[in-house]
Specification:
heterodimer; A: 566 residues; MutS, DNA mismatch repair protein, domain I; MutS, DNA mismatch repair protein, Chain A, domain 3; 4 domains; 6-stranded mixed beta sheet; B: 286 residues; alpha/beta; Rossmann fold; 2 domains; 9 strands; globular
């Protein structure tokens, strides 16, 4: 009979047979059995054996949790999916086996950590499912920005699209496993499978309707029971599986609008060296490198889309050109715009990390300062002078309540990690302030104790201090050992000093620890509320972000270095 | 479409120390297919790519690198240029070239822009030339797409006389007794010479090879009346038995004929060339 822990491991593994399972054990993620063998090979780790009377010898290897990202990146690059099983209850609060759950499945197309994402480009994932004779539904998504598009195409077009983006991961219904749907050679992607169930018309519709909070997808430009939605529903279900949660930043799905766009096939993209140079020396550059003058990652991604799918409608072209010209005609506003845009961070990806529960206080601060640029930019566009340019900005969401909340609740310069504390602004929450006051009062009290003890013992160099191992203690140098009072309890001997505790200090320590725990739990709670209120406005924030991306892309077009034009 | 003083946005941005020579493009409805001839390295590729990029940028709503540009709405930009990236995928250069051409012929419309660079190069001269000519005629007669056709087959310039919509251009060069100067400007009319040998000279070919090549060229030109038959490189010149060169040349001929161009990587091609040169230098000792 297997040990309870290995039984737990087996259960989690069975639920995710196509992924390496990283099993959290204290400060490590451990891999067992075949996973351990593959992991040790790919990551160049030492393969050890866990010996246990119940389990026998189990091959295992582990990676430290605090530097897991670099190992995960390697596993992804080697084409693996990785399921992460975390301890989901506090080990100190239970006497039984600690509960573990899969919190995330990391795949090349869905991993949100920084090193897996390219800044100015989409991180595309696609789902394809057959919907008729020679007709296939394609959904193209980007979990890092919330983008999702869907359409129905012949297979050749889909292959082109996968290459063009380029798509990192392709999701197919389970029944196409081993079916050789298409030749994926020359495409740098991994193929994964999702249950057939999610690609069924009804189920796909339900998945989408639930996520987008609508009864019908017609509002998004699809016909009732549009076959394209089958791929979109399947993709969404798969993304939900990988993040193990509802993805609140996936707020829309739109139909492909190919009729109004010029077609550039991948051959032309390569031949014209739009994004990469075919050959040639170090001085060669792609068109993209020459024309991209965007200031934000969102602008860069949009400009990239514009370059990949130029307009084909004369009116659309004229309108965009008109907007560029209006910008050019106001050089001062243009300069200020550059400056304002430079302070805008990647709002879309911050939202994605928020939705995936991977955000940091600093992320939220970036979001706040980025949103603060919105009115500045709007002002610069001055609708009375630039009619075309400011088009669309009347639809901007003011989000003033959210912004006020962010300003009032979040510290001016919060730390990178929530557990470091100091995330919530002073004066925002009475309870938190009270706990903090207690903490602060403690520090003052400590200084007072030091004074008192020095006076009572007559030891001028006596110190009251704190460290993580021993807590609070009194340190007395060896020269004054004879003056140490009886009620001091010796804790540690150093070469030139002794450290003591007293019952009074111990009592104080408990009070401080509980205050600290209260501060951090209250901060966590408030930070959660902050995140919640942002996610509740996800669609509105994305809309605003898109307005910024547009202005940034237009701003970049004004820099396309040319002398004259018609 | 009409472009006045168009430039290549990337080349212009990189070569800041060199003045970029701007060029016009005129593909108006009555002459939509331009045949562009001129020696290699003279700027044919830059010119046709810059035209495609101008069309692309115009459709993005961007300013374009030109004094002025009138560009009709374009549904698709097709390109078939140079040997590119598929070599590693195991297809032969020529097969890649032909499938790309097929894609264009099957999908281009009257609203497309088609850019063809040295199509037909991957096969024997007459094969390639015939294919190139047929492609041009099909685009002219059936598709009606605006087309820039860069080629070193100057025979294609004859199409201008036979088809109303075809117009010839060439890249201007100035030949001085010592040198060949690329003016990088596009001029009306075809070019009958490709200056291959002059360029080989610039590249540092041994004098004997150049001399031999000039002889071969003269021979070949005399033989054009005998067409259609496939000229071989050593056609029309059989070294006499008393020539000390004979053996060497036969050896070289065998070596050259044994080269399968479609199977060579660029590096192998260079090595083959170096090897041939090495053998020739050996011959000079005679």
């Amino acid at each position: 009979m297997a040990s309870p822990m290995m039984t737990q491991y087996q259960e989690l593994k069975e639920g995710n047979p196509n992924a390496l399972l990283l099993f959290r054990l204290g400060d490590f993620y451990e891999l067992f059995y075949e996973d351990a063998q593959e992991g040790a090979r790919v990551l160049d780790l030492v393969l050890t054996r866990r010996k246990n009377s119940a389990d026998g010898e189990v091959p295992m290897c582990g990676i430290p949790y605090h530097s897991a990202e670099q190992y995960l990146a390697k596993l992804l690059a080697a084409g693996y999916n990785v399921a992460i099983a975390e301890q989901t209850e506090d080990p100190s609060q239970t006497k039984k086996l600690v509960k573990r759950e899969i919190v995330r499945v990391i795949t090349p197309g869905t991993a949100l950590f920084e090193s897996n994402l390219e800044t100015g480009a989409h991180h595309a994932i696609a789902a394809v499912t057959p919907v008729g004779k020679e007709r296939y539904a394609l959904a193209l998504g980007d979990i890092s920005t919330g983008l999702m598009r869907a359409g129905v195409f012949p297979l050749a077009t889909i292959r082109e699209e996968l290459k063009k983006q380029p798509v990192k991961e392709l999701v197919l219904p389970e029944r196409l496993r081993d079916k050789d749907l298409m030749d994926t050679s020359g495409l740098d992607l991994v193929v994964n499978y999702e249950s057939n169930w999610y690609f069924k018309p009804d189920q796909a519709q339900t998945e989408l309707a639930n996520r987008l909070g609508v009864a019908s997808l017609e509002g998004f430009g699809f016909t009732h029971d549009d076959p394209a939605l089958r791929a979109a529903g399947g993709l969404l279900a798969y993304l939900r599986y990988t993040q193990q949660r509802d993805l609140e930043h996936m707020t829309s799905v739109s139909p492909y609008e190919d009729k109004h766009r010029m077609t550039l096939d991948t051959g032309t993209i390569t031949n014209l060296e739009l994004f990469s140079v075919i050959r040639g020396g170090q001085r060669s550059r792609s068109l993209w490198e020459v024309i991209n003058r965007t200031q934000t990652a969102m602008g860069a991604r949009l400009l990239r889309d514009w370059l990949l799918a130029p307009l084909q409608d004369v009116n659309d072209i004229e309108e965009r050109l008109q907007r560029v010209e209006e910008l050019v005609s106001r050089p001062e506003a243009l300069t200020n715009l550059s400056t304002a845009l430079r302070d805008v961070r990647d709002i879309e990806r911050i939202l994605a990390r928020l939705a995936a529960d991977m955000t940091t206080p600093r992320d939220i601060a970036s979001l706040r300062s980025s949103l603060e640029q919105m009115p500045v930019i709007e002002e610069l566009l001055a609708p009375d002078e630039a009619e075309e340019l400011s088009r669309g900005w009347e639809t901007r969401f003011s989000l003033s309540d959210l912004q006020r909340f962010l300003y009032e609740a979040l510290a001016e310069d919060p730390p990178g990690l929530l557990r470091n504390g100091g995330v919530i602004r002073e004066g925002f929450d009475a309870k938190l302030d009270e706990y903090r006051h207690l903490q602060q009062g403690g520090k003052d009290w400590l200084a007072k104790v030091q004074e008192q003890e020095r006076a009572q013992t007559g030891i001028p160099s006596l110190k009251v201090q704190y460290n993580k191992v021993f807590g609070y203690y009194i340190e007395v140098s060896n020269t004054h050992q004879d003056k140490v009072p009886e009620h001091y309890i010796k804790r540690q001997t150093l070469t030139n000093a002794e450290r003591y505790i007293t019952p009074q200090l111990k009592e104080f320590e408990e009070k401080m620890l509980s205050a600290e725990e209260q501060v951090s739990s209250r901060e966590r709670e408030l930070f959660g509320e902050l995140c919640r209120s942002i996610l509740d406005n996800a669609a509105e924030i994305q809309h605003n972000a898109h307005l910024i991306a547009q202005i940034d892309a237009l701003h970049s077009l004004t820099k396309t270095d040319t002398q004259d034009h018609t | 479409m009409y472009v006045k003083r168009g430039r290549h946005p990337v080349v212009e941005a990189i070569d800041t120390d060199q003045t970029f020579i701007p060029n016009d493009v005129d593909l108006s409805p009555d002459h939509q297919l331009a045949i562009l001839t001129g020696p290699n390295m003279a700027g044919k590729s830059t010119y046709i790519r810059q035209t495609a990029l101008i069309v692309l940028l115009a459709h993005m709503g961007s300013f374009v690198p030109a004094d002025s540009a009138t560009v009709g709405v374009t549904d698709h930009i097709f390109t078939r240029v140079g040997a590119s990236d598929n070599l590693s995928e195991g297809q032969s250069t020529f097969m890649v070239e032909m499938s790309e051409a097929a894609h264009i012929l099957n999908n281009a419309t009257a609203r497309s822009l088609v850019i063809l660079d040295e199509i037909g190069r991957g096969t024997s001269t007459y094969d390639g030339m015939s294919l190139a000519s047929a492609i041009a005629q099909y685009i002219h007669d059936t598709i009606g797409a605006r087309t820039l056709f860069a080629t070193h087959y100057h025979e294609l310039t004859e199409l201008e006389e036979r088809y109303p919509g075809v117009v010839n251009y060439h890249v201007a060069v100035e030949e001085t007794p010592e040198d060949l100067v690329f003016l990088r400007s596009i001029e009306p009319g075809g070019m009958s010479e490709s200056y291959g040998i002059t360029i080989a000279e610039k590249a540092g070919f041994p004098k004997d090879v150049l001399h031999r090549a000039r002889q071969e060229l003269a021979n070949a030109e005399r033989h054009t009346e005998d067409a259609p038959r496939q000229p071989t490189l050593f056609d029309g010149h059989t070294p006499t038995s008393e020539s000390p060169w004979k053996e060497r040349y036969e050896e070289l001929q065998t070596a050259l004929q044994g080269v399968d161009v479609n199977q060579l990587t660029p590096l192998q091609a260079l090595q083959t060339l170096a090897d041939l040169q090495y053998r020739l230098e050996d011959s000079n000792e005679y």
